[in-house]
Amino acid sequence: MPIVLALVLAAGIALPDPLTLEVTRDSAAVEISFRLATALPEDLASALGSGAEVRLSYPLRVKAKRRGWWDRRLWSGELVTIAAFDAVTGRFRCEVVLDGVITGSEEAESAEDAISWLTTPPPVRIQLPEARRHAILKIRVRAVFSSGTTWLIFPTQDATPWTETTLERPPELADAD
Fold first, then answer.
1. DSSP character for 16?
2. pTM of the shown model
3. 56 with 144: CB under 8 angstroms?
4. What is the per-residue pLDDT across 139-158, written as a single tens digit (0 to 9) for each?
5. What is the pLDDT of residues 7-35, one digit of tens each?
6. Integer Rg of the chain from CA
7. Residue 65's Cα: distance from chain center in Å?
8. What angle, rounded to 10 degrees, do the helices at 42-50 and 111-119 form?
9. Deepest in the core among 97, 158, 173, 177, taking most CB within 10 A?
10. Mind giving me the DSSP string for 126-162?
11. Roughly how many angstroms between the first and final C-alpha of the chain, as a whole number?
12. SS3 letters for 25-70?
């Protein structure tokens, strides 16, 4: 039995992250780009072809470090990608919504293009507060495929684990404190 447990743990360690996360930083802001590296769940992929609206939610968190402890969040938001088939035009209507505001839209010719829109949203640029521009930052993101409740009480989510990265101070601000 211990051999089976070791194999299961080794397989879990060897799995790649379901999200690829890239963050660039300048003196006043961070730009977060990410891509869902795994396939969409089968029920979402089949719903896209049926004409139903498909939504992927990406919660984003930015925290700053101060004197050894992580502060409360500097910024948190939710990026939602939406794709739906329009039977009149024969194309897919795609939108990106950041915290309730539509920030981008386009029409896709095929289901593959719509899936690409869902899984590779445009980058998110976040302005940093003046007092935290020199801080060490932690950025977290995950993909949420669906949310619901069990027995009308317990919240449930079908989602990827959090992917995170830590950004050191920018070189030009490394001496600031």
1. P
2. 0.81
3. yes
4. 999 999 876 555 666 666 78
5. 444 444 555 788 999 999 988 899 999 99
6. 19
7. 21
8. 130
9. 97
10. EEPPGGGTTSEEEEEE--EEEEEEETTTEEEEEEPPP
11. 53
12. ECCCEEEEEEEECCCCCHHHHHHHHHCCCEEEEEEEEEEEEECCEE
CATH topology of domain 16-173: Immunoglobulin-like (2.60.40)
Which residue type is seen at 140?
R
Residue 108 clears pLDDT 70, i.e. is over it: yes
Q: Tokens for 105?
A: 């839209």
Rounded to whole angstroms, how far apart are CA atoms 112 and 116?
A: 6
DSSP per residue over 60-122, as a string? EEEEEEETTEEEEEEEEEEEEEEEEEETTTTEEEEEEEETTEEEEEEEESSHHHHHHHHHSPP
Q: Is the pLDDT of residue 130 over 60?
A: yes
- Contact (Cβ atoms closer than 8 angstroms) between residue 124 and residue 31: yes
CA 123 – CA 7 distance, rounded (Å): 37
- Residue range 25-69, pLDDT digits in tens: 988 899 999 999 988 888 888 888 788 889 999 999 999 887 767
* Spatial distance between the Cα atoms of 44 and 177, rounded to a whole number of angstroms: 47
CA distance readout (Å), 49 to 45, 111, 117, 150: 7, 7, 15, 28
